[in-house]
Amino acid sequence: MNNELRQSSARAHANIALIKYWGKRNGPLNLPAVGSISITLAELYTETQFSWTVSETDTAILNDEPDETGRISRFVDLIRRRADIDYSAAISSVNNFPTGAGLASSASGFAALTVAGCDAANLNLSARELSILARQGSGSAARSIDGGFVEMFRGVRADGEDAFATPLADADDWPLEVVVAITTRARKAIDSTTGMTDTATRSDFFEAWVANADGDLDAAREAIAACDFDALGALAERSCLKMHGLMLSTGNGLIYWSPATVATIHEIRKLRADGMPVYFTIDAGPQVKAICAPGYGEAVAEKLKTVPGVEAIQRTGLGPAARVIE
Ligand code: 2P0
User: Fold this and answer.
1) Which residues approach ligand 1 with their CB closer than 6 A?
2) How far is CA 301 from each of CA 12, 14, 207, 307, rounded to the nearest angstrom?
3) Ligand 1, atom 1: nearest CA belongs to which residue?
4) What pLDDT, on the 0 to 100 scale, is given for residue 1?
5) Confidence class for position 4, pLDDT limits 50, 70, 90
6) pLDDT tens digit string along 40-87?
7) Domains (range + CATH), the chain
C-alpha cells in the first residue's frame, strides 16, 4: 500500500497509422490481429491530471463530461493492482481537438492516462511497459507512448507481453507534415472497438487482410529508413483503402466517410497528379489526413480549405513521446 496521495499530469500526442491496425486477436487484452506503423502528431494532444483520493469512487471528467462507460475506472484498476494502491482516482482530461470523430482521441487519451497514472502511483516503468499498459486501454494508445515514427508489434504471446510499440525514427529525422481536413465534428456512430469486432467476425476479407499485413509493414519500415516519400505515401494510401474495404465488407457495412471525405480524396489525388507530394489516410471517421513531404503542408492546406464540405483545417508536424508535465 502506497500511503502518499500523489498527483501527476501528463501530455500525450495523437498518432495516425500509416499502416493500419484493424481487428484484434484477443479482445480483453486488446491484442491486435496485425502490426501497425504510425506517426505521432505535434499539435494534437491530450493533457490529463491524475490524483489519488480517499473518495469512495473514481471520477473521470473527459472534456468537461463525466465518463459513464466505466472504461477509465477499469483501466485504473490495472495501475492500482500493479502499484498495490487502493485509493480512488480523480481524473480530468482535455483534448485540444474534436473527440471521438476519427482523430485518435482514445490513443492520446489512454497514453496520457497511463503516463500520469503510473507517475502518480510512483511506478517507474520503461517505455515498453508503458506501451503494454496503454494498449490495454486502447490498441492505438500503445503507439502514442512514443514520438516520431512508431511501430506496434502484433506479438504472438497470449499474455500480450510482446504486443507493444517502439520508435522507428525521430520526428526530426524526417519532418513530414500533416494537414487534417475536418469534415464534421460530430461523434462517430460506431466506435472502433465495436467496428473491429464486427469486421473480424463478419468480413470475408479478414483473413487476407491479416495475411498481407507483414509485407506492408516490411515495405513501410524500409521506406521510412530510406526517407522515400512516394513509397511510404503509396503504402499508406493503400493500407487505408484496404482497411476501409474491410469495413465496407462487414455484415453491417461500416461507412465512416462523408461526401466531403470523398471530395478530399479526389482533391489530394489531383494535387499529386499536378506534382504536389501528398498522400491521404483516413481512420475510423470522416476526417482526411493529408501526409505531406517536408515543406508542403501550407500549400496543401490552402488547397484543401477550398474543398466543399471541409469545415476546418488543422496543420501539424510530427511530435514527441508522451511525458509528465508540470
Ligand atoms: C489505427 N484505428 O491503426 C486504426 C485505424 C482506427 C483506424 O486504432 O478497440 O481506438 O481501443 O483498440 O485503438 C482506432 O482504434 O481501438 C484505431 P481499440 P482504437 O489507428
Assistant:
1) 17, 20-22, 30, 36, 106-107, 138-140, 192-193, 196, 283-284
2) 25, 19, 37, 10
3) 21
4) 45
5) confident
6) 999 999 999 999 999 999 999 999 899 999 999 999 999 999 999 999
7) 7-169 (3.30.230.10), 177-317 (3.30.70.890)
